[in-house]
Write a structure and sequence with these properties.
Blueprint lengths: L15 E5 L3 H7 L4 H22 L3 E8 L7 H24 L2 E6 L7 H14 L5 E9 L1 H17 L10 H7 L10 E4 L18 E4 L9 H13 L10
The chain binds 3-methylbut-3-enyl trihydrogen diphosphate (IPE) (2 copies) and magnesium ion.
Length: 244
């Protein structure tokens, strides 16, 4: 089914879609498989989703791959997830680049292995001129940590006498976040039936529309994305106003 309604001006697709990719473990468990099998299928779902976003003309896709709290998982699972990240970057970057995708990473890189940091930097460098879709991957990312890091950076500038505290406003603060050159997400999707934000894009999603779907992330496909976008298009975004 086409995304545009058949009357009036077609409703715009969201400029920026952000996804909390959840349910890999449950997908695997339902099949009697180890959790890593779910994460493997999750990578396939990422590939499909990136393709769908470029096809639909979405400009920005942000995916939550590993939270700053996911270190609490057993070391073996953390290792598997880091291994998949390596494989994903190595295997996908050329194709992403061919498809006009710019890849960027947000999150604290300090705790990531040196070789992963190298891959991250190389892939960002290799794709930096691409403009069709900006794919932001959140790895070791936490919204509160990002806000605190930004507060610290700004506080240092104040201490150094470079900045008057009265000059700190939303625009300035937003520009100091890791997502500085990305518009705020219009639509945040969370799969697997959970209805919480789990420390994702706390500042940036202040006025995002949220769509929750019971679909487990490894099963998420083009039709699920279209359905979330239709739901988004049916909402009235008021930004605190009285509405029309
Ligand atoms: C999402 O799936 C992937 C990551 C958080 C890395 P989960 O691994 O959280 O899957 P469930 O929630 O246990 O089903
Ligand atoms: C959120 O999923 C983090 C990612 C999708 C990377 P979790 O599965 O870690 O979140 P909780 O623990 O259910 O809140
Ligand atoms: Mg989960």
């Amino acid at each position: 089914m086409a995304l545009a309604p058949s009357y009036g001006a077609p409703a715009p697709v969201p400029r920026h879609v952000a996804i909390i990719m959840d349910g890999n473990g449950r997908w695997a468990k339902a099949r009697g498989l180890p959790r890593i099998a779910g994460h493997h299928q999750g990578v396939e779902a990422v590939r499909r989703c990136v393709q769908s976003c470029t096809d639909l003309g979405i400009g920005y896709l942000t995916i939550y791959a590993f939270s700053s709290e996911n270190w609490k998982r057993p070391a073996a699972e953390v290792n598997d997830l880091m291994g998949l990240l390596r494989v994903y970057i190595r295997r996908e970057v050329s194709e992403l680049s061919r498809n006009g995708v710019r890849i960027r990473f947000i999150g604290d890189r300090g705790r990531l292995a040196a070789d992963i940091n190298r891959l991250i930097e190389e892939s960002e460098e290799q794709t930096k001129a691409n403009r069709r879709l900006t794919l932001t991957v959140a790895v070791n990312y936490g919204g509160r940590q990002e806000i605190l890091d930004t507060v610290r950076t700004i506080a240092r500038r104040v201490r150094a006498g470079e900045l008057d505290p009265e000059m700190i406003d939303e625009t300035m603060f937003g520009r100091a976040l890791q997502t500085a050159d990305t518009p705020d997400p219009d639509l945040v999707i969370r799969t697997s039936g959970e209805q919480r934000v789990s420390n994702f894009l706390l500042w940036q999603s202040a006025y995002a529309e949220f769509v929750f779907t019971p679909t487990l992330w490894p099963d998420f496909g083009h039709a699920d994305l279209e359905s979330a976008i239709r739901e988004y298009q049916s909402r009235e975004r008021r930004y605190g106003g009285a509405g029309g």
